[in-house]
Every structure is written in structure tokens, then in C-alpha cells.
Amino acid sequence: VDRVLRGRIDDRFSTVRLGGLNLDAREARGVRRVKILGCGSAYHTGLIGAQLIEELARIPADAEPASEFRYRNPVVDPDTLYIAVSQSGETYDTLAAVQELKRKGARVLGVVNVVGSAIARETDGGVYVHAGPEVCVVSTKCFTNTAVAFALLALHLGRIRDLSVADGKRIIDGLRKLPEQIAEVLRGEQEIEKLAAEYANAKSMMFVGRVRGYPVAREASLKLKEVSYIHAEAYPASELKHGPLALIEPEVPTVAVLPDDDLLEKNRATLEEIKARSGRILAVAHREQEKADHTIVVPRNEPELDPILMGIPLQLLAYHTALALGRDIDKPRNLAKSVTV
Ligand code: F1P
């Protein structure tokens, strides 16, 4: 996280410098909509990025799996800014989506980790994530850094569009706190290892979150599937009552992402629905949750940045669950470093 922030924050003016963006102020002011494309973890960081851009720059934004987008003859709109996200920069579905967009005359930026990769080359500009090489196949630190890169991009767009400087300063202060807070989360690893041993016998796992918690729930569920091979589902918390509650039973525990924001009461009501069906609950929250069987407590930061910190203990949970089950974490089955087909 230090690396993605380094040299990019100007404290005097509470602004952000993104040298490679290649989007001048006039172009940035003309953006009516942002569409983010990526696959797997990159898509999930896109969901976080879309929320950050809506919250901090007030531009309508959404994310879609690039692997869907490229097959559906999408309407390409000149006032939409397209952003492709990729750790490797080589994922073929994402690259194909970028090429399709370029063919149709769209402006496409990249949020990419590997410098000089195919997606970095094909895009018109963008932000490098500087997470360093992902030594294992699954994306972990790159997920975190990409979310930080999106916070910087959202701040930048917000500032150009004359949104509150005070808000910018608040988020910048929050970003600066992240490295120490991440270290604090990592110091809780032993606790998470014990929890992983407790939940590793699950038949399946449910992950839920609402708004800022939802992309975290999706990513945590993907991480668990990728490395432990436990079946997992992720739902927006309010979707549970539209069918999936039927799956809840003691052998199907739920991981609930519960930031201490204005949705906490709603989220607690979801926990009650799960408890009423004898479901076990592991919460990730800013304070102990009495309705949960266990809580992993993470430090508080600015609410918009919650997805960044809350994802990390769940990466550790997936890692230790895989270890407890004797899986080869660095070589998960059926997963390539970059999916080039
Ligand atoms: C996308 C991705 C990863 C996943 C695995 C397969 O990669 O789906 O999220 O962990 O490595 O590919 P990328 O486009 O971000 O490199």
C-alpha cells in the first residue's frame, strides 16, 4: 500500500497526482458515466472502485465481468469512461473487452499491476497498482492495492469536478493510516488460524455484505473457493431473504461483513435471520457482534475505505482454511496465473 501511495499525494493541496492517467481536466469533466471491467478478483475490485467513484466523485459507475461484456455486443457510449482492471495485465477476456471498446472508439484506462503488460499497452492511460509480483496464483495484495488505486482515482476525479476538498483531505488521511492498520490486522493472524480450523469442516459457506461489504463478501468467497475448494456463495445481504436463506443450516456457516456504517442495524437484522435458522456466523466488524458466534475486529478508518481493510482478514481465513485442509495453496487446482483463453 505504501508503494501505490508513494509520490502520489500532494498534502499541501489535498490532491492526488496520477501521472500516467492521460485524462485532462476537460475530458474528466465530460465523463458522464464510468464502467469498470475485469475478471475474478479484478472484477471485485471494480465493484469497490465503482462505489468509490460514485461516493467521492459523484459520477454514476458500475462494474461488470469483462468475460460477459465482451460477448454481448455492448453499446459503447462516448461519454462513458471505461476502465479495465487486471493484476497480470494479460487476462484474455479483459484484453478482448478492451480491444472491442477501442474498435468502437471508446476511451479506455487501465488499473493494472504488471508494467508493460498487454492491457497496459492497449489502454489509453491509467494507474499502475505497484503491488509487486503476485508470487502465488491467487490475487491478494494486488486486490488491496487496486482498491487503493481506485480511491486515488476517485479522489482525483472528484477534485477535478470541484467536490469538497475537506472530503478529499479526510480520505487522504485515511489512506495514510492504512499501512499501519493492515499491519494490525496481520498481527491477528493466529486468531484467524484458530477460526479457520473451526470452520474448515463446513459443507458450504455463505458470504454476505451490504453495499461496501458486498464486494468484500464476493472476493472472500472467491478466495475460499480458489484455495480450499469449499463451496461458497456470496450474496448482497438483502438478497438472502429472496431465496438463499433456504440454504442456511449449522453445516453452512455465514461470514458477514459488517462495517460500522449507517447500515449496521440493517446488517444486524440479517444476522438475526441467519440465527433463526441455526446458522453459525463469523462476523468481520469494527466491534464485537453479540449475534455472531465469532467476530474478527478490524480497525476503523473512513467508511469509504472499509472494503480495503475488511478484505484482508478474509484472505487470511481462506489461506488458513486451505492449510487446515492440506491444500497446495501456491498451486491451486484449475487456476492459472493469467487466464489467456
Ligand atoms: C484475473 C483472475 C484472478 C484470479 C486468477 C485468475 O486475473 O481471475 O482474479 O485470482 O489468477 O485470473 P487478472 O486479470 O487480475 O490478472
UniProtKB/TrEMBL annotation:
Location(s), subcellular: Cytoplasm
Main location: cytoplasm
GO molecular function, one term: glutamine-fructose-6-phosphate transaminase (isomerizing) activity
Record's catalysed reaction(s): D-fructose 6-phosphate + L-glutamine = D-glucosamine 6-phosphate + L-glutamate
Residues of the active site: K337 (for fru-6p isomerization activity)
Keywords, ordered alphabetically: Aminotransferase, Cytoplasm, Glutamine amidotransferase, Repeat, Transferase
Keyword Heme among UniProt keywords: no
Top-level taxon in the UniProt lineage: Bacteria
Leading EC class: transferase
Listed EC numbers: 2.6.1.16
Residue ranges annotated for the SIS domain, each copy included: 23-163, 195-332
Subunit and partners: Homodimer.
Task of the protein: Catalyzes the first step in hexosamine metabolism, converting fructose-6P into glucosamine-6P using glutamine as a nitrogen source.
Name of the protein this chain belongs to: Glutamine--fructose-6-phosphate aminotransferase [isomerizing]
Originating organism: Streptomyces luomodiensis
Residues of the full protein shown: 272 to 612 of 613
